[in-house]
Amino acid sequence: MRVTQKIIYDDFLRDITRNRTQMAKIQSDLSSGKSVRLPSDNPINFVRSRNIEENLRKAEQYQDNLSSGLRQGRLAQEAVDEVLDLLIETKRLATGGATASNSETARISMADQIRNIRDSMVASLNSSYGDRYLFGGTNSSEPPFVLDDTQPSGVQSLANNKAPSVAVADSVRIDISISGREITDLGNGENLFQLMADIEQALRDNDGAAVNGQLSRIDAAIDSATIAISRLGGNLNRMEFMFEQYESTKIVYQTDVSRLVDTDFAEAISQMQRTQTAYEASMAVQTRMINNTLLDYI
Q1: What are phi and psi of 205, to 5 degrees?
Q2: Same domain membership, residue 277 and residue 239
Q3: Range of 275's domain?
Q4: Residues 111-135: pLDDT tens digits?
Q5: Is residue 229 part of a domain?
Q6: Closest by Cα among 200, 196, 224, 199 to 213
Q7: Looking at the structure, do residues 290 and 220 belong to the same domain, yes or no?
Q8: Contact between residue 91 and residue 219 where contact means Cβ atoms under 8 Å apart
Q9: CA 278 – CA 272 distance, rounded (Å)
Q10: Which among 113, 126, 192, 280 could disulfide-bond with 184, CB atoms 3.0 to 4.6 Å apart, if both were Cys?
Q11: 17-64: pLDDT as tens digits
């Protein structure tokens, strides 16, 4: 095969074009920080990075759910703690009211305190986060407990028995609070606010024996609130653990995506220098080729 000057020149132009294209690609990788931006850059890495990024977005969403759930759960825990403290104070007053040495006036004063405690319980159980009531169950758009003198207990309950929950993983939900009924329904037909009403009435009737008969019911209410706090605390611990797990998972996902699509700057700069050297050498050869004439061969 005869190698003509045109063949040599065409090969030279092709090499120059390839070097310039490669230099442009490296410069783009360096300026953008991404070596894979389109499927054509690396189909396998592009698809794998998109799948990992989808998992990353899902982890971030679940972590947001957990963060919101933890805030609401801690508020609910504080509210139930307040109810427990109020029940302990109720027992202290009832124990005093059951003592035979107390006068009728003292018991009426205690009855007034019991009513105030009941009102404080209603306020605690009507705690809200934003426009959402924490103890309304799934009926969270309105106060779960309303003072109503037409009710035997003096309180109307609008709560249901299903606790609010958040999605924390695929097909996994965790309760972020306790349903209002779980706290106020003490079992065997007992109701927290009816208990408070009965204690108040016994004190107003100056009936120490009747007040004494309520002490076991108060203990049952305290036990019920303690169990509810324990279960809620377990859910909060579980959510905190999952939040930290997602934090670690996000770091792994971000590292994997970076490995697949981000520019390796050390390698890119080294490649840029090699390509630049090859390009400059090609240009030097071009100068000598253009300067060649027939006189050079005489």
Answers
A1: -80, 0
A2: no
A3: 5-35+263-297
A4: 999 999 999 999 999 998 888 888 8
A5: yes
A6: 199
A7: no
A8: yes
A9: 10
A10: 192
A11: 666 666 666 566 565 567 666 676 678 877 888 888 898 999 999 999
What number of CA atoms fall less than 13 Å from residue 119's CA on the CB side?
8
Helix axes 192-204, 43-98, angle to 10 degrees: 20
Let me know if residue 273 belongs to a domain: yes
Domain count, the chain: 2
> Considering the entire predicted model, what is its pTM?
0.73
Q: Please give the Cα distance from 107 to 147 (Å, whole number).
A: 23
State which H helix or E strand residue 165 sits in: strand 165-169
CB 163 within 8 A of CB 127: no
Q: What angle do CA 4, 8, 12 make, to 5 degrees?
A: 165
- CA–CA gap between residue 31 and residue 263 (Å, rounded): 9
Residue 44 lies in a domain: no
In sequence order, what DSSP letters do the residues of 18-34 get, joined into one string? Answer: HHHHHHHHHHHHHHHSB
With bands split at pLDDT 50, 70 and 90, how would you rate the model's confidence at 178? Answer: confident
Q: CB of 211 within 8 A of CB of 97?
A: yes
* 48 lies in some domain: no
